[in-house]
């Protein structure tokens, strides 16, 4: 039975203000932290996520400023707004995947800013599928719960039940 | 693979070396040069210099927080290797003495852990730590920004092949036409190869644009004195083609 959930260690949901609203461990593999430590971790990650987005390399566009290219300093002066990102077609995101020796963390940020952090084994495949399904379950059983207060900790029995069942049944 | 920037932080959380390569916006690799903004060289670009300075602090804050987070979750012997966003990939390597090597590359790059380790072992230790004139601490990057380290780093990181070759203004092939140019190349600090290039020979197409003319200061192998020799860009490249032991990537 534990073989079916192989690979998924735990799930954390962080609201758009950086507060921890859900934390659940599916399988041991990571060290156990106290609730306080998880709150700190969620807040830290929220900040780091924003910083990783802001340190995205900016590639200067040379076309709008051809004249300073041969300036006396020998350095092309990029126009004030003349830069592009490495993958221009893709919106700039913060940290998506974090790889370490022992685990792999996948972050999925919804359009409203809620972040889902999934800790998996480094060898687990199709993490994106798992996280999409978790988002779907969250939308169905948390957001549609009339008693759930938005931005508050998730205490929805149906969400817990379906999440556990789906991860167990996943092959 | 494109390398955007490279940072070294010492154990006091200070950035002792930073270097950014700004690739050209289009993907075509041509003869046009790209800009190299190094932390040591003052440039006239207030915006760029400020943003590199701030970037290094932000990068340090990021890797420091993530490293602590990873150690908390995965145990003390776990360490984080890299992270990916939709735009770039950050590689991280930390030595036992808490020197941190960080590199930002594009998404297509493979794991650079070995490469960063090689930079530490083959370049940082050889050219910075073993340098008798280098201080043990590097406040403000003193001792790290020596020519030998920078040249080797640049050679090894073949940043998108020819893109990072920077042409110095006013230096043309003509200035090296006459006479002999000697190059003393130290390999791993043990063996040295002395090359004599007669510049009277016919220049091949690859060799003709001599773009680099730098002075290498290297400790002599017997450790007694310092030699200054000039090495040209063409020799750099011919050396790279002959399989320089430090070269990591094509």
Automatic annotation (TrEMBL), chain A:
A GO term from the CC aspect: TRAPP complex
The family database entries (InterPro entries) matched by this protein are listed as:
Longin-like_dom_sf (IPR011012), TRAPPC (IPR007233)
Q: How does the record describe its quaternary structure? A: Part of the multisubunit transport protein particle (TRAPP) complex.
PANTHER family recorded for this chain?
TRAFFICKING PROTEIN PARTICLE COMPLEX SUBUNIT, TRAFFICKING PROTEIN PARTICLE COMPLEX SUBUNIT 4
Q: Where in the cell is it found?
A: Endoplasmic reticulum; Golgi apparatus, cis-Golgi network; Golgi apparatus
Record organism: Penicillium nalgiovense
Family label = Belongs to the TRAPP small subunits family. TRAPPC4 subfamily.
Which keywords label this protein? Endoplasmic reticulum, ER-Golgi transport, Golgi apparatus, Transport
According to UniProt, the name of this protein is Trafficking protein particle complex subunit
Broad class of where this protein is predominantly found: endoplasmic reticulum
- Which Gene Ontology BP annotations are present? endoplasmic reticulum to Golgi vesicle-mediated transport
What top-level branch of life does the organism fall under?
Eukaryota
**TM segments?**
none
TrEMBL record, chain B:
**What is the first-listed, main subcellular location in coarse terms?**
endoplasmic reticulum
Q: Where in the cell is it found?
A: Endoplasmic reticulum; Golgi apparatus, cis-Golgi network
Q: Does the keyword Transport apply?
A: yes
Region (Disordered), start-end ranges: 28-47
The UniProt entry's coiled-coil ranges are: none
Q: Which superkingdom does the taxonomy of this entry point to?
A: Eukaryota
Q: Which CDD domains match?
A: TRAPPC1_MUM2
- GO cellular component assignments: endoplasmic reticulum; Golgi apparatus; TRAPP complex
> What processes does the entry annotate via GO biological process terms?
endoplasmic reticulum to Golgi vesicle-mediated transport
Q: Which InterPro entries match?
A: Longin-like_dom_sf, TRAPPC
Q: Which SMART domains match?
A: Sybindin
**Keyword match Cytoplasm:** no
UniProt keyword list: Endoplasmic reticulum, ER-Golgi transport, Golgi apparatus, Transport
Comp. bias intervals (Polar residues): 28-37
Q: Tell me its family.
A: Belongs to the TRAPP small subunits family. BET5 subfamily.
Subunit relationships: Part of the multisubunit transport protein particle (TRAPP) complex.
Could you tell me what this protein is called? Trafficking protein particle complex subunit
Organism phylogeny: Eukaryota, Fungi, Dikarya, Ascomycota, Pezizomycotina
């Amino acid at each position: 039975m534990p073989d079916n959930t192989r690979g998924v260690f735990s799930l954390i949901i962080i609201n758009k203000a950086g507060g921890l609203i859900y934390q659940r461990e599916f399988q041991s593999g990571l060290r156990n932290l106290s609730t306080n430590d998880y709150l700190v971790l969620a807040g830290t990650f929220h900040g780091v996520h924003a910083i990783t987005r802001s340190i995205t390399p900016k590639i200067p566009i040379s076309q709008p400023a051809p004249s300073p290219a041969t300036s006396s300093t020998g350095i092309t002066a990029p126009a004030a707004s003349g830069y592009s990102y490495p993958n221009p077609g893709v919106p700039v995101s913060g940290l998506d995947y974090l790889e370490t020796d022992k685990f792999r963390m996948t972050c999925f940020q919804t359009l409203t800013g809620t972040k889902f952090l999934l800790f998996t084994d480094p060898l687990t495949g199709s993490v994106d599928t798992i996280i999409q399904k978790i988002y779907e379950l969250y939308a169905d059983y948390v957001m549609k719960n009339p008693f759930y207060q938005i931005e508050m900790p998730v205490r929805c029995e149906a969400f817990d039940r379906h999440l556990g069942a789906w991860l167990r049944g996943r092959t | 693979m494109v390398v955007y920037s490279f940072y070294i932080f010492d154990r006091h959380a200070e950035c002792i070396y930073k270097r950014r390569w700004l690739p050209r916006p289009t993907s075509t690799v041509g003869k046009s040069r790209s800009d190299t903004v190094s932390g040591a060289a003052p440039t006239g670009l207030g915006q760029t210099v400020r943003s590199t300075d701030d970037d290094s602090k932000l990068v340090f804050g990021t890797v420091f927080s993530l490293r602590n987070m990873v150690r908390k979750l995965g145990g003390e012997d776990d360490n984080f290797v890299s992270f990916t966003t939709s735009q770039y990939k950050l590689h991280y390597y930390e030595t036992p003495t808490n020197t941190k090597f960080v590199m930002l590359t594009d998404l297509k790059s493979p794991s650079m852990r070995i490469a960063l380790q090689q930079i530490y072992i083959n370049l940082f230790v050889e050219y910075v730590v073993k340098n008798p004139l280098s201080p043990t601490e590097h406040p403000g990057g003193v001792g790290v920004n020596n020519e030998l380290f920078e040249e080797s780093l640049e050679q090894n990181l073949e940043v998108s092949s020819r893109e990072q070759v920077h042409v110095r203004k006013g230096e043309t092939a003509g200035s090296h036409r006459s006479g002999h140019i000697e190059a003393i190349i130290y390999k791993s600090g043990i063996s040295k190869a002395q090359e004599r290039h007669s510049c009277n020979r016919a220049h091949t197409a690859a060799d003709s644009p001599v773009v680099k003319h730098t002075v290498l200061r290297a400790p002599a192998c017997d450790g007694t004195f310092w030699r200054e020799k000039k090495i040209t860009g063409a020799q750099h490249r011919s050396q790279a083609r002959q399989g320089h032991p430090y070269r990591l990537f094509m």
